[in-house]
Amino acid sequence: MNEKKDIILEKVAQLFFKYGIRSVTMDDIAHDAGISKKTLYQHFKDKETLISEFVDTFFICNPNFNLTKGEGLNAIDKVMKIRKHMEDLFKLFQSNLEHDLRRFYPAIYQTMEDFKRVKIYEDDYSLIEQGKKEGLFRQEVDPHFIARLTVGRFLLLFNPDYGLFTEQETHSIELFDKAVDYHFHGICTDKGIQYFKQQLNKIQNEN
Predict the structure, then answer these.
(1) Buried b (16+ CB within 10 A) or exposed e, 148-181
(2) What is the pLDDT of residue 207?
């Protein structure tokens, strides 16, 4: 991807996070990026292509969502690293992106949902295996079963369309913390729970 395209996508992200996808026009994007519509269409043939590349860049291909990376980090530290990225992301959200995607761009929405299902499952499975070796998670925990539960839990909790939590709640780090706390209390050893609480308290006290 070229530098100009990166800059445009950064502007696109700012607009989509603030106003949603449907209400933002190609005119809005060109104006905010300080380019002509002709230049915009040279990089993206239409709005759907632009949205697809936005989803790829900020969600599907975003290295910050890769839980398997993080050399020197234990399983709980890796979740805390994701927590920091989620907290930063939630601060940007002022719209329901997923609602717009599901309603107006269902193919892109389905691609993102399929990615999340696979990514959450694979990362959680890997984390559980790592945490068991580190003595942070209980040995009897079935990673295949727990990883599937994690997929369902997070896909339901953080989508306000299901009506379990309000849009404001799904964009809050408080809900994320409660979900992770519930998750860890189900799989952690005493050592793991103690370490998780120490790390969470440390992070929360820094804010």
Answers:
(1) bebbeebeebbbbeeeebebeebbbbebbbeebe
(2) 66
**What's the token pair of residue 53?**
């590349």
Q: Which residues pair with 137 in a beta bridge?
A: 188
The pTM score is 0.88
One-letter amino acid at 41 equals Y
Give the separation between CA 18 and CA 83, rounded to whole angstroms. 21
Cα angle: 39, vertex 43, 49; to 5 degrees: 125
Residues 188 and 196 sit within 8 Å (Cβ to Cβ) = yes
Residue 58 CB coordination number (10 Å)? 20
In sequence order, the 6+-apart residues with CB closer than 8 A to the CB of 129 are: 143
Angle (nearest 5°) at CA 148 between 104 and 151: 35
- Both tokens of 15, joined, read 């607009």
Listed in sequence order, the DSSP H helices in the chain are 3-19, 26-33, 37-43, 47-55, 75-92, 97-104, 106-133, 143-157, 167-170, 173-187, 190-206
- Which residues lie across from 188 on neighbouring strands? 137
**Mind listing the pLDDT tens digit for each residue in 97-131?**
888 999 999 999 999 999 999 999 999 999 999 99
- Which domains, ranges and CATH numbers included, belong to the chain? 1-63 (1.10.10.60), 70-207 (1.10.357.10)
Show the low-confidence residues of the chain (pLDDT under 70): 1, 70, 207
